[in-house]
Design a protein that fits this description.
Residues 396-592 form the Sigma-54 factor interaction domain. The protein has 665 residues and is α/β, with parallel strands linked by helices. The chain is built from 23 helices and 17 strands. Strand 6 and strand 7 form a beta hairpin. The structure holds adenosine-5'-triphosphate (ATP).
Length: 665
């Protein structure tokens, strides 16, 4: 154990040395106020500000000891952020008594982050003069890229704990610490003294703030300030936030110049080519219409991947790429440079071979739909059918279990053709707004009393009366009482007649669950000549692999959250009775606790733990549904269910075991 650690442990009075703290605080205040645009500093929240000053350090040390020996956390002493990080550190089996890290001898020191941050770090270093504070920049994996320290003794201390260029301070290697915990939580984080998981770090205080790309929002790295724990305080975090803000502003300027240069080259290439053109760098992809039409999504990804690799050599390159569809493309990559470094590159591509023989630039068979994910056969069929009905202007019903993505699919088709057009959803399940008692008594139709359907009919009437083109979705029409369904049928019938006369084109779609019998809705359904079925998620379970990253990007916004193979295995084996809506809800719960890093099985809520033993193909999951349905009809009597399905008793027992079917007693 070093002397410094001994100081941190044995001399708690040092924590209270206000004179020294005041001196440091004055120096940091000077640095904060001398930075331009001070008004941009984000306000400190309770959870940002360490309360280690109000908690006695030996109480914190005792709380840490209790956690390490008994696994219990004293919530009065330990902040929730720290307790959560301690638990993660324990799951990763991080050593508590010694810091020894892997060394990356070639970290990327030419990245836009390093270039953009350099002048900001230099400015701050000059303002901090000889203070024992280290200004540290890491990449998104926590690998230290740049470290600037005024005080030699303090610098030697950081070398001892390998807080030095090339070493990763990710939580999974070091446990709770400013850099790693800020990366895990995706937010500004201070970690002070005994809050560190590793004993070696308990004499240090760190304030770390994630730095994001100003255009893509991707996490680029972390700006971290480290000092002796006894000197640390809320101002350290304020200064770290200000500095991270300045780095992001530098990046905005640099990336604006780079992206503009890339855009100019892209437009030039599009003008001179009537084929496929891409432009890309680490943060953005531009693609012409020809590329979107001619290539299936998986072929686009393969081409982009090959082009990105080819351009890492920063020379003009031509190469042939085998695509997942079986086609072969020839790509020509031209890197684009600016004074401030590489800006990406422009790629022109030609399909030179296709599975059917020579068929250049074969159009993609499925339309690309914005904002949704999924390429499983049943899901694609639903997409194609809805798309075809939209193009024909034919009114349809879209049926499917709750949360299968009916409205999401309609919105995507609408956006593909008419992105600026009017898209309106009226929900029959939504309660009516409360009316004034007198009005309500007058307005209520006898059959609708007590339901929200009167309000729904009014909203439909009002929407139809407005002179809009675009798309109108009537959601959950199966929840309407019979009289309201009839009234709606009359309303829509009149609308169709009027539209026929005036030629006004509004696409009306109704969504509902699968119907056992449609007597109540028969009149209403006659207004919709077409009908499309959206499959339950378990029938296109392979799409979970596409849906998870897609939904995580939306839910975690700024953070970069990925799913480990083990967690993905659990997600693809769950049965998802609530379909995509349930998957989204599960991921939302995960994101609430973790904004970046990797999702492990332990991060998933319990509903994902009871799963089939393997991924079922669509046919198998339909078979499982049929068995479950008939078991439910037969109140769990397996013989009766087997008879109804026309299979033997042995078969139904085998299938129940194979599919892991469990019915409530
Ligand atoms: N293919 C998809 N890709 C991405 N997100 C999707 C997809 N399908 C559905 N979602 C998301 O899942 C959630 C539920 O989808 P949506 O509301 O469209 O389902 P629904 O079938 O219309 O629901 P309901 O049965 O309640 O009417 C939404 O947040 C939606 O954005």
């Amino acid at each position: 154990m070093t002397n410094h650690k001994a100081c941190g442990r044995l001399l708690p009075s040092q924590y209270e040395t206000t004179r020294r703290l005041t001196l440091r605080a004055a120096s940091w205040k000077r640095a904060i106020t001398s930075q331009p645009r001070q008004e941009d500093v984000a306000p400190l929240t309770d959870s940002d500000v360490p309360h280690v000053r109000s908690v006695r350090p030996n109480a914190l040390a005792a709380a840490r000891e209790r956690f390490l020996t008994a696994g219990t956390v004293d919530s009065d002493t330990v902040r929730e952020t720290i307790a959560a990080s301690w638990r993660r550190s324990r799951t990763w089996n991080v050593r508590t008594n010694h810091v020894e890290l892997a060394y990356d001898k070639n970290p990327n020191l030419e990245s836009p982050l390093v270039n953009g941050a350099a002048p900001v770090l230099q400015r701050l270093r000059e303002q901090m003069s000889d203070d024992a504070v280290s200004i540290i920049l890491t990449d998104a994996a926590g690998v230290v890229l740049d470290r600037r320290t005024g005080d030699r003794r303090f610098e030697r201390r950081l070398d001892q704990v390998q807080l030095a260029p090339g070493f990763s301070y990710a939580e999974r290697f070091v446990g709770t610490n400013g850099i790693g915990t800020a990366l895990e939580g995706g937010r500004a984080t201070g970690v002070f003294g005994h809050e560190h998981y590793a004993e070696d770090l308990e004499d240090l205080g760190c304030a770390a703030v994630p730095v994001h790309h100003p255009v893509s929002g991707h996490l680029l790295g972390v700006l971290n300030l480290t000092c002796w724990s006894r000197d640390a305080g809320p101002l350290l975090l304020a200064l770290a936030k200000t500095t991270a803000g300045h780095i992001e502003r530098e990046l905005t300027t640099l990336s604006g110049l780079r992206e503009f240069a890339l855009f100019q080259e892209y437009v030039r290439a599009c003008r001179h080519s009537n084929g496929i053109v891409f432009a890309l760098n680490n943060d953005i992809v531009m693609m012409n219409d020809h590329a979107r039409q001619a290539l299936a999504p998986q072929d686009q990804s393969a081409l982009l991947g090959a082009a990105a690799e080819a351009m890492s050599g920063s020379k003009r390159t031509a190469l042939d790429v085998d695509l997942p569809s079986g086609a072969k493309a020839r790509i020509f990559c031209a890197p684009v440079h600016t004074d401030s470094g590489p800006a990406g590159g422009v790629v022109r591509a030609r399909i030179v071979e296709s599975p059917q023989g020579l068929l250049p630039d074969r159009p993609a068979s499925h339309p690309l739909l914005p904002g949704i994910a999924g390429s499983g056969a049943l899901w694609q069929r639903a997409c194609d059918e809805v798309h075809a009905h939209y193009q024909a202007g034919e009114w349809i019903t879209v049926r499917g279990e709750d949360g299968t993505g009916k409205v999401a699919l309609l919105h995507a088709v609408h956006r593909r053709h008419d992105p600026a057009g009017h898209f309106h959803v009226l929900d029959a399940a939504e309660p009516a707004e409360p009316a004034e008692p007198a009005e309500a008594a007058e307005a209520a139709e006898p059959a609708d009393s007590g339901s929200g359907s009167a309000g729904f009919l009014d909203r439909v009437r009002q929407e139809l009366a407005e002179d809009n083109d675009g798309t109108l979705v009537l959601r959950h029409i199966d929840r309407l009482p019979p009289a309201s369904a009839q009234a709606l049928a009359v309303l829509l019938h009149q609308q169709r007649k009027t539209a026929g006369r005036t030629g006004r084109r509004r696409w009306v779609v109704a969504t509902h669950r699968p119907l056992d019998h449609d007597d109540n809705l028969a009149g209403l359904l006659r207004n919709f000549p077409g009908s499309v079925e959206v499959p339950p998620l378990r029938h296109h379970i392979e799409d979970v692999r596409e849906l998870v990253p897609h939904l995580l990007v939306k839910l975690a916004s700024a953070g970069t959250l990925t799913c480990s193979p083990a967690a993905m295995r659990l997600l693809t084996r769950a049965t998802w009775p609530g379909n995509i809506a349930q998957l989204r809800e599960v991921l939302r719960k995960v994101v609430r606790r973790r904004r970046s890093g990797v999702i492990e099985p332990g991060d998933l809520p319990p509903e994902c733990r009871s799963v089939a033993r393997r991924v079922l193909n669509p046919l198998e999951s339909m078979e499982r549904d049929a068995i479950v349905g008939s078991l439910l009809d037969a109140q769990g009597n397996k013989n009766e269910a087997a008879r109804a399905l026309g299979v033997s008793r042995a078969t139904i027992y085998r299938k129940i075991r194979e599919y892991g079917i469990e019915l409530p007693q």
